[in-house]
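Justification of resources, computational component.

The compute hours requested in this renewal are based largely on the per-chain cost of generating structure records like the one below. Each record pairs the submitted sequence with a full structure-token output. That output is archived, and it is also reused by downstream analysis tasks.
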Amino acid sequence: MFVTRRIWEERFYPTDKGWGVFDIALDPEKRILLIAAFEKGLQRFRLDGQSAAILERSPIKEKHGHRGNVIKVSWHPLGKRFATCGTDSLTIIWKDDFTPEQQVRLAEIPQTLAWNPTVHILITAAGPQLASISVPRDPSLYRLQSNIWCAAWNHIGQIYAVGLDNGAVSVRDRRDNEMCLIHGTLNAPVWDVAWTPAEAPRPDVLVVLDWSCAIGFYQATGKQFRATCKLDFVPLRVSFSPDWHLLYVCAADKKIYVVSIDGVVIGKIAECRSWPLRFLQRRTTSTYKSDFLVIGADGLINMLQIAFDKCWHYHSGLYASRESLVNLSVRSLERNRETTIAVGEAVHKIALYRSLMAVVVPNAVVIYRQNTQEMMLRYEEVTRMAFQRQCNVVLLAAQHVVMVHQAKIEAMNFQGAVTQVCVNVTGGSPGQESLCVALIDGAVIRLFLNQPFLHTLLKIPSVPIGLDVNLNHSKLAVVGENNVIYVYDLASKVMLYQEPGADSCAWNQYHPDMLAFSTGSLLKIKMRENKVHTRRTETPMNGKVIGYAGSKVFYETTEAKAVVVDVPHTMLIHQSKA
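The structure output for this chain reads:
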């Protein structure tokens, strides 16, 4: 589902006195990285705004700075100030020009820093002592019933939560009055807290990590929002994805996990050599690719690039795509209607066929059926089959799920039995559908789900990257790796024509002689052997044609979004009459 690549690595070697790196923080523009490098003090990296490269490395040496080791650092979301704390029990507020502005000394070593996102109020804590600093005024000090390990403000800066060593969470308003006290089930120390961001439907939900291997979800009133998620690891830190649907959880088993907002553990995205102490997003390069920074207790700072694979399928005007890794969106492109299905498990593959949909989840294939009696899109689960094999392509027929893995094709019926070991489903009677399969040597073969024999149709002089059969199964269009589309008559196996400039194609669902193909933002329509009608889409997009119905062409963009392009047929009609 995701691939992680290390872009660069920096090491601050730890000594016998402590760890190499304790904390990192990015300024709001994501160009300056501050590093709490323990005995090496406060370090500054200047990053390239267009790439992940480090442009400059420099220590911040200030005579009015820390006299001890720096262990925490935090930028204010508005970017005008940042704060640090160290083993000298000092919390220092700095201006953005890296000059100290205010110092506060607590009784013990501070363990947390949390800025109010809307005003310049800083929460810091050492042991049971809580300090609320309204810059530039003197701090307000409070003593809680247990040591404080973490703190976080909600997105509007009206309330904040502090996690305690006795397993409780104190929710307080901006004037530091306690609104409620949340008690954990096992009284395990609360190691991190986070509020859902402003974009979430419920931005007042508090996520709580504790050492009982659990993630709790609570409302601001203290009421439990959903059931506690039990984990197989001890969580250390939590952060939200930009679209708020996912949680990134650093764990004591040296791994970083992806967890859905519903508490479903989807998988691990990285593995470190020591405890990961902080994991934050630096930039998004595309919808499915982002850069992250992670630090480990061994002094390593890594810039990682995490790429999520696309997961979608198109069939006869329906477009299904994965959302937030555990949900599905099904959209009727012709009627512009959409529905969301909460699968509740990691979605690996999707396949549509008529009113059916197959969803591959860990260890199972789930079959859904559309309620065709209703005007609205509605899918219901009809069966679940155990499935533990790997596959890179999944297709669906009326009575079978077809799985392709490398050179092997298997057809499994809805009872879970493999009926054919044999890819585009071209239709047919239920249980007797035929499939067209393109091979890497350029050959295209046809197989039937109820027959053990393969039929070679044709061979193109390139590696096939896409194919489609027309409405009455009389013509086959094959797109080659050389960006040439070849159109054949299936009865005579004769090539009717070929056209350059194609990376995808689709026959019209309602007209057997109308073919759409594209490259980049150039859309091309061809009617029989007539001249190609070319037009540039209104919004330039680097996408692929996935469907063609009437006067509408359906694109799948590089961001895995379905786009409808209206195509007038006036020119094509004149050509056909001529």
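The chain has a mean pLDDT of 88. Residues 460-578 form a domain with the Methylamine Dehydrogenase; Chain H fold (CATH 2.130.10.10).
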